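Objective 1b: paired records.
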Amino acid sequence: MDQKPIISLDQSRRAAKARGPSKGLGRDVVVASICGGVVALMVGASYAAVPFYNWFCRATGFNGTTQVATSAPASGPIARKIAVRFDSNVAPGLPWKFEPEQSEIEVNIGQVVTVFYTVTNQAARTTAGQAAYNVAPLTVGSYFQKINCFCFTEQTMAPGEKREMPVVFYVDPSIADDHENDGLNTITLSYTFYPVRDPVVKPLASGENDKRKGNL
């Protein structure tokens, strides 16, 4: 009668131990690859989210983001009037004095208006800033149309320079068809200038758009 070879318990343990690490190592590599892919996807999504969010706000007026217009409204002004208030702020690190020439005006909806903010660089060196903006209530962002604004570009100021910066805008007449805004009497346009660490090199003199031209 043939006898089967007898494998000791110690031999079995050694064989299992020999097989175990290679199998566990393969599993660890797969898990690490999946985790790495997830992290890369999250990082990529976070970078893509910023420009997508900015585009979405500009396209829809979400969060009070104003719109950019190329001309006056085709329908012209309507009889309904609305007050527009002007707010100004400067973030820490930018030595500028920034204020509107008028704190509030009353305009006809659809009327193209030019207003001015005054900016003074109080530093003894050249500084640069970029203005962020929105309107309140936040739901009227899609109706607030800017034709020209200092906020569209970086602003570079020479030491002690004082400059008048225009904003040309109108409130879109289509707001009158939005019954959620039937009781709207006031819109606040708010700006905050933030320092620019690496400004675009350009002449310090005021451009043609910075000169007072009156209402368009």
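Objective 1b, second protein:
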Amino acid sequence: MQKTVAIICGGGPAPGINTVISTVAKTFLADGYRVLGVHRGYEGLFKDESDYIEFDFEHADRIFSRGGSTLRMSRFKPKDSDFSPAFFVKHNVALLVTVGGDDTASTANRLSKYLKEHDVDIVNVHVPKTIDNDLPLPDRNPTFGFHSAKDEGVRIGNTIYEDARTTGSWFVLSVMGRSAGHLAFGIGTSCHLPMIIIPEMFNKTKPTFQKILDLIISSMVKRRIHGFDYGVSIVSEGVFHILDDEEIKKSGVRFTYDAHGHPELGNVSKAHIFNILLQERLRELDLEIRSRPVELGYELRCCRPIGFDLTLCTLLGYGVKKVYQQGMSGCIVSANSNGDIVPLFLDDLQGEDGKIPPRLVDIDSEISKLGFQNLHYIKPKDYEAAKAYVANPEQFDLEKILEWD
């Protein structure tokens, strides 16, 4: 019976998924394999009637540069009791290619063990994906999709900044990134935005809404001192996720809560919340500055991949075949800075607690230090001029707020 390669995608979209799928399909079709793409990740894999695409060269060739994913995606995480060997036996699957995050990869490891116990032997190769760029790959190499998402964010960020300049107003721009501020920092520095706020900045002090708002106001006042009545402050959504639940509750914003009593942050626009609280704080200070919220998240996930990710994802697709031919299973395909395929395993990335620690923005790196130094915020030399707008300018000094001095 003809051997089959099955491909599934878990989690959320990232630019370059179709490039990986296309490359894997083309390379294995050329060697006489049957290639199936299963919709809805693990959920689709274990349905009684799995919904899948059988690839031919034309389909694979048509999608390689498209955004989104030709395979429907799902965050479904199966329990061991959900597993079944039926699909693998029926289609004579020799290789399962999983595209997703660490949950998708760890589930594939569990599934491989289950199948082996049921006398079904398959190879699994995982291609890691996240536009957050927070997976600790060797050489701090970027995760696929990050640069394309950043590029799209820069295009939107520049447009928003031009709107601010044209209308003499401010925007609060919130950008996705649950644990790390790579997207916000990359977009903010590329667009020369006057204020960037990411979770890594709070390395010496506990984050609060007031500190976040005062950082934004610091930039507003600094710009006023120099005669500019406009600007954009970019805030990583990760800042929201490191706030204490009590801090969130006392903000006065109404949330829905999960079964554990935690605010369901995914249901709300962080930009909207920050902007409402900012307007209240500006009224307290008797500052008449208009600001508007912009949420930037879903706009980035399905954009067309740029050349960098087209090249990287093609290489990763070739890498799937390379490690398969080398007899490796349960591995993660990565590429180093020389363009060499480097197989990794979950154990290579996991900490002592068994979880993969997120790769954060290195705020001690030169690019970070220079980026933060060139933001617009009140410094001691501005105190006297700032008194025309706020009574206590030292309260709005970024280095004092973050306890960096």
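The longest strand covers residues 93-100. The chain has two domains: 4-145+305-349, 149-301+375-401.
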